[in-house]
Automatic annotation (TrEMBL):
Annotated organism of origin: Melghirimyces algeriensis
Family annotation (PANTHER family): CRYPTIC BETA-GLUCOSIDE BGL OPERON ANTITERMINATOR, TRANSCRIPTIONAL REGULATOR MANR
GO biological process, one term: phosphoenolpyruvate-dependent sugar phosphotransferase system
Identification of the protein by name: Activator of the mannose operon, transcriptional antiterminator
Family annotation (InterPro entries): BglG_antiterminators (IPR050661), HTH_11 (IPR013196), Mga_HTH (IPR007737), PRD (IPR011608), PRD_sf (IPR036634), PTrfase/Anion_transptr (IPR016152), PTS_EIIA_type-2_dom (IPR002178), PTS_EIIB-like_sf (IPR036095)
């Protein structure tokens, strides 16, 4: 069991009263989202191995329910015996790690004994493991009476192993510490990882644009895996033409210098193709945002960015501005930030380097309107660069544009000085800085920096407060407020209390869902539907909208095609399928509440709200998506919406 989940379970076992998620997150020094995810994982653990359950009471907290003797037994087991029981998800990654790092065929019995479970348990895990490996182009070969092994290209093998390391060691925390290195010590040697990270950070100081902490950790892991695989006799193959093109780039020179240092210290010879592979990762790494790029150094910053990325960005900004606000075309920070992002994005896309956006779901939920606007601009852009742009990349673009919108409403601050510590990248840093400046005029953001520069920044700026998106250790002289990159409402309130100013009034509950209620057609609310497939639900609701004259005939097919581009699940068991605005005759929303939740692109969905609106009607659509974002966070209303027996009762609950 993950140490943090073990600590969470211990906290719950030692209290007889409800504990709020906020309090648990503070005691565990992590985000509320992490606590909720851990609680879900503990649900599975408790259901399979105990008669204890987690009870949840909205606005109150969580409580373990079960016999006292059962609780004491579990508490004893957690701390006085070795914990061999893993959640299914964690076990899945441990099994994959074993398959990817073992140089021979493994029998089901060997795997089962390794994880103290039955062969049937491992057998039930295999379909998920096989599907996960297939995402990377790897095949799980099952030979009767022999065992299991993985087969596939070396590049795919490394990508998969890198993802396993990320999942097990939580390398998304942006700093590789001793505890993380111990978790993956049977995959990567701790000394080698530490040395590679040190050399990578040295290299970073010589680059035109510095890498994010996240990129440095990702690059370190990729290089450590490459070293391991080279030592095992596995090397990357690269076409001569591709290698020749890479050798012309200045990043190849940096990669060659790094390879020389690694080869000398780790006693290996790194082939030229491997240096090409290192170059690809350098080209695709996300770049850290620095205020100096736009404050006095705008022109010199533009000169460092390749012309193609800059031209694409200018065209994209113009298209988005035509829909949301023409003024953003004059925002130099938007041009620089987005151009820097595309500088690496184009390399990732063209060389098929995946980039997972850990904030994808939250971005789609909080900034749905903007996400849809940018997504609608992708068709022309994809044709121009001749490759598909995944929704993870679109979500990063949303951050840049949202930051520009926040800056339009900015009031000049004059009170409290603050430094932002945000290791995830330019878009995230810009958005957080813009939101803070817009919401809190009394804050002066003097600098945005990385984790490794915290002490220097404190000495140089002497800020009143540090606002960090990751927990900081060893900072005593300045108060630290930890927030998530998107700064949701509850964190805004926390900051508001800190600066002792309240500038935003709460919306009245009666007006909270006014736009949603205005657009929902009571006659198009269908309760306890028995559909088992998302395509069936989309077709049913589209037909109803068509019959009432709200949309044209092919709206359902449009919505299905739109779903293939990016899932319209927004959280809270709610999905909002929709087609193109051109097929909408009159704005409306049709609603289906399903009798049993269905699988919607891997998520559980009970409420399907089919939207028929035109994205050009920006004010109405912005209000609608804002209300939908509130709804999926409103557990009380969602719970109540499951109760009504009639459409009218359902409709009246949206007060």
């Amino acid at each position: 069991m993950h140490p943090r989940r073990k600590q969470l379970l211990t906290l719950l076992l030692r209290t007889d009263d409800y504990t709020s998620v906020t309090e648990l997150s503070e005691r565990l020094n992590c985000s509320e989202k992490t606590v909720r995810n851990d609680l879900k994982a503990l649900d599975d653990f408790l259901e399979n191995d105990t008669r204890i359950t987690i009870q949840r009471k909205p606005s109150v907290g969580v409580l373990l329910e079960g016999e006292e003797v059962e609780k004491k037994k579990l508490l004893y087991h957690l701390h006085d015996t070795e914990d061999h029981t893993l959640t299914q998800d964690h076990r899945k990654f441990e099994v994959i790690k074993l398959l990817l790092t073992t140089g021979h065929v493994l029998t089901m019995q060997e795997i089962a004994e390794k994880f103290y479970v039955s062969k049937s348990t491992i057998s039930s895990d295999l379909p998920e493991i096989e599907a996960w490996l297939e995402r990377f182009g790897l095949n799980l070969i099952c030979k009767p009476n022999l065992g299991l092994r993985v087969k596939g290209a070396e590049k795919a093998w490394r990508c998969a192993l890198s993802k396993v390391v990320e999942e097990l060691a939580n390398t998304a925390s942006f700093v590789l510490n001793t505890q993380q290195l111990q978790v993956i010590k049977d995959v990567l040697h701790p000394y080698e990882v530490a040395f590679i990270e040190m050399e990578t950070r040295k290299l970073d100081q010589t680059l035109d644009f510095h890498l994010t902490d996240q990129s440095i950790v990702n690059l370190t892991v990729h290089l450590a895996i490459a070293v391991k695989r080279i030592k095992q006799g596995h090397s990357i193959n690269m076409l001569e033409s591709e290698l020749s093109e890479l050798q012309k780039k200045k990043e190849f020179t940096f990669a060659k210098k790094l390879a020389k240092q690694l080869g000398k210290q780790l006693a290996i010879k790194i082939p030229e193709a491997e240096i090409g592979y290192m170059t690809l990762h350098l080209l695709g790494s996300r770049i850290r945002y620095d205020l100096s790029l736009v404050k006095g150094e705008f022109q010199s910053s533009l000169e460092k960015i390749d012309e193609e990325a800059l031209q694409i960005v200018k065209e994209l900004i113009q298209k988005v501005a035509n829909v949301i606000d023409q003024r953003i075309q004059d925002d130099q920070e938007l041009v620089i930030g987005l151009a820097i992002h595309f500088h690496s994005t184009l390399n990732r896309l063209r060389h098929r380097l995946s980039m997972t956006n850990p904030m994808l779901k939250e971005i789609k939920k909080m900034y749905r309107y903007l996400f849809e606007v940018i997504l609608s601009c992708m068709t022309d852009l994809e044709e121009k660069i001749e490759t598909t742009i995944p929704e993870d990349e679109v979500a990063y673009m949303v951050l840049h544009f949202q930051a520009a919108l926040e800056r339009l409403n900015r009031v000049k601050p004059d009170k409290t000085t603050a430094v932002i510590i945000c290791p995830t990248g330019a878009g995230t840093s810009q958005l957080l800085e813009a939101k803070l400046s817009s919401l809190f005029p009394e804050l002066i953001i003097t600098e945005m920096t990385s984790i490794t520069q915290v002490k220097n920044v404190i000495y140089r700026n002497k800020p009143d407060v540090l606002i960090s998106t990751v927990p900081l250790e060893g900072v005593e002289d300045v108060p630290v407020i930890t927030v998530s990159p998107l700064l949701p409402a509850h964190e805004q309130e926390m900051l508001r209390k800190f600066v002792k100013e309240i500038h935003v009034s709460k919306e009245r509950m009666s007006d909270r869902y006014s736009t949603l209620k205005e657009m929902i057609v009571p006659e198009l609310i269908f309760l306890d539907m028995t559909h088992e497939d998302q395509s069936d639900v989309i077709r049913f609701l589209a037909d109803k909208l068509y019959q009432r004259g709200f949309v044209e005939k092919g709206y359902g097919e449009e919505a299905k095609e739109r779903e293939k581009i990016s899932s319209t699940y927004i959280g809270g068991e709610v999905a909002i399928p929709h087609g193109k605005g051109g097929a909408v005759k009159k704005p409306a929303i049709a609603v289906a509440r399903l009798k049993k939740p269905i699988n919607w692109s891997g998520e559980k969905v009970t409420f399907v709200m089919m939207l028929a609106n035109n994205i050009q009607e920006r004010e109405t659509v912005k209000r609608l998506f804002s209300e939908l974002a509130n709804l999926v966070e409103d557990e009380n209303t969602l719970r109540q919406l499951k109760q009504p027996k009639t459409a009218l009762q359902f409709y009246k609950l949206l007060q």
